[in-house]
Amino acid sequence: MKAFERAGRAEQMRRLRVLAREALREFGIAAARLRPLRYAYNATFRVDFAGAAGSALLRIHAAERSPAALHVELDWLRRLTAAGLAVPRPLATPFGGLFARSIAPGVPGPRCCTLLSWQPGQRLGRRPAPATLFAMGALVADLHANTSPRRGIQPRPYWTAHSFFHDRTLRAGWRRLSPARRALWRRVGRRFAAAQRALGCGREVFGLIHGDLTFDNFLRHGGALRVIDFDDCGFGHFLFDLATLLDRIEWRKNYPELRAAFLAGYRSRRPLSPAHELDLPAFLLARWCFLGLAFLAAPAGSPGRAYAPVFLRIVTPKIKRELDTRG
Questions:
Q1: Alpha-carbon distance 255 to 258, whole Å?
Q2: What is the pLDDT of residues 113-141, one digit of tens each?
Q3: Residue 23 to residues 16, 50, 193, 300, 321: CA-CA distances in angstroms?
Q4: Among 29, 50, 75, 316, which residue has the fewest nearby CB atoms (within 10 Å)?
């Protein structure tokens, strides 16, 4: 059998589907329909139970995702569910475990697998109204109000200046930046690091955050919003979650109105001081720099690497304008 890393994606997915069946057995599920959804960092499947028993989401996690890291995410999801928030709920094995460690022929393993309640709903359109942004802001504030504090060394990402600019996985991206862009990125890095130092790490500004609040990770169901895909959750400043979402709308003509609605929704649930709001551009620029480095560092031929030149042409003038305006 060809090594997993050298097998094509279709063959990898075939083997992972076998592993998914093994994982379902460990969760006590003998009869269910498996439908592949996405295969990137994780492999995800929709699980439709026999009869009218509903559905779930099965995730086969990448080999480097540790059980300890999964526990942080799953414990937070349980906490959010207990607080009444519409987020995926971890489903347990018959023995009370929150994940299975499953194996299958031809897959390096074992792999950690988790099962989450299925979240019904429709994805948001690309042209949201201010009322939608207000509701999104309120929901993000509810996530932050029920965050999980750090307890010693945590096995989740830390969304800090180091991870945005100095992580070893970004080194190839730095090498592929032009000298002019490299100097610009370094200016952003210094500004971002200064903003994070000034904010500190108090519980009112720092905790476990979602880490990937794009429009694709919000669903509308029955007139209410819900959040999905907490796989990138880690410890960071709450402003990073806000900046990630603002990144998706900052190019719209009515951005000031949408931004005001989003922040008003957030402030309807928890405080956000005017001084902290002034730090949002530093987080937005840092996100752009991080994504640019990540796209450049991606393997040759990958979608991210192919998109890198387009992305850099879009964000570089915006970064220059912001730095020229605010320093």
A1: 5
A2: 999 999 999 988 778 899 999 999 999 99
A3: 10, 17, 42, 33, 51
A4: 50
Give the model confidence (pLDDT) of 256-303 as tens digits.
999 999 999 999 999 999 999 999 999 999 999 999 999 999 989 888
Reported as half-sphere exposure (CB side, CA atoms, 13 A), residue 207 has a value of: 15
Domain span holding position 35: 4-118
Contact 41, 23 (CB under 8 A): no
Q: What mean pLDDT do residues 238-257 have? A: 94
Question: Does 299 sit behind a cis peptide bond, omega within 30 degrees of 0 on the bond before it?
Answer: no
Query: Which residue, 118, 142, 163, sits at the end of a domain?
Result: 118
Does residue 98 sit in the same domain as residue 132? no
Domain identity same for 232 and 161: yes
What tokens does 29 get? 């599920």
239 and 96 within one domain? no
Pull the structure tokens for residue 275: 């001084």
pLDDT tens for 57-79 read 999 999 888 898 999 999 999 99
Structure tokens at 26: 């460990």
Is the CB of residue 73 less than 8 Å from the CB of residue 136? no
Q: Find where tokens 């928030």 sit.
A: 85
Residue 30, domain CATH: 3.30.200.20
Do 105 and 213 have their domain in common? no
**Half-sphere CA count of 159, side-chain side, radius 13 A:** 26
Closest CA to 247 of 226, 293, 216: 216
